[in-house]
Amino acid sequence: MPCKEPPPEPSIPQRSRLATRLLPGGTEPDPRFTLANERTFLAWIRTALAFLAGGIAVEAFTAALLSDAVRTVLTVLLLVAGSVIAWGAVARWLSVERSLRHGRPLSLPLIAPLLGTACGAAATILVLVVIAN
Amino acid sequence: MATSGPRHHDPGLQPERTVLSWTRTLAALVTVSLLFVRWYTQQGALALLPAALATATAVTIHLTQRRRYRRTVDGIVVERVRDAAGPVLATAAVCVLLGAAGLWVVVDGA
Questions:
Q1: b/e per residue, A79-98, with b = 16+ CB within 10 A?
Q2: What 8-state DSSP symbol labels residue B1?
Q3: Are A70 and A40 in contact, with CB atoms under 8 Å apart?
Q4: Which residues of chain A are within 8 Å of residue B71 when distances are taken between CB atoms?
Q5: Cβ under 8 Å to A: B residues 28-67
Q6: How far apart are CA A122 and CA A114, in angstroms?
């Protein structure tokens, strides 16, 4: 019966210089929490990209439905919201990673109410415009 | 299929879910890239720059997926994974740049 060699044990990863500078001190958290944080960050980034896509779509496709001014306002609102969400996603990722490293409770997610506000504002503008036409 | 490296025993399938999360982000970037290309008919060649950035980022994610999977599997096995500070910052920077490019094209064309 051939005996297979077990695969070599992977080595403990070294932290990158960037990570050490941004997230100093503390202890290494459970890898499952770090990975969950990474996935949450990516979920927010996809939300940001959806807002960018919405902004581009409004600019490209609604020329017949909306006046130039309204269309520009809506586009800018959506594009800015997308960028803000991307910023917020990084800030949240850093904040959560720091809290994980130092065993502190996680802070409130601020981009959730911000997102709600942006969505509400854009939807309200659109409803008012459609009613007015 | 030849297996290489350690198998992880995480029932939560964290490595798979993390890699999948990056794949979904890649798909969102491709969508945004195509929408920027749609702008080409109205805005000209200017619209192709952000499209190229989004596509290049998507390709980079794709090319690093295998290494990412290996990193996360190793991380589960040794109970310690490196936080992905570089990719996180780079992805967010790309998003902000795409938003800025969009704003520039809109303001420039208005």
A1: bbbbbbbbbbbbebbbbbbb
A2: -
A3: no
A4: 13
A5: 28-29, 31-32, 35-36, 38-39, 42
A6: 12
Rounded mean pLDDT of chain A? 83
Per residue in B16-71, pLDDT (tens digit) is 899 999 999 999 999 999 998 887 777 777 778 899 999 999 999 999 999 999 88
Single-letter residue type at B89: L
Based on DSSP, count helices (H) and strands (E) in chain B, helices before strands: 5, 0
DSSP string, A32-62: HHHHHHHHHHHHHHHHHHHHHHHHHHHHHH-
Structure tokens, A6: 């077990």
For residue B65, give the nearest of B32, B20, B1 by alpha carbon.
Answer: B20
Chain B residues near residue A80 by CB distance under 8 angstroms? 99, 103
The string of pLDDT tens digits covering residues A31-66 is: 888 899 999 999 999 999 999 999 999 888 887 777
Q: Which residue in chain A is spatially nearest to B29 when comparing CA positions?
A: A49
Query: Rounded CA gap, B47 and A100, in Å?
Result: 41
Q: Which residues are CB-contacts of B44 (< 8 A; sequence separation ≥ 6)?
A: none
CA B74 distance to own-chain centroid: 21
- Specify whether the CB–CB gap between B5 and A7 falls below 8 A: yes
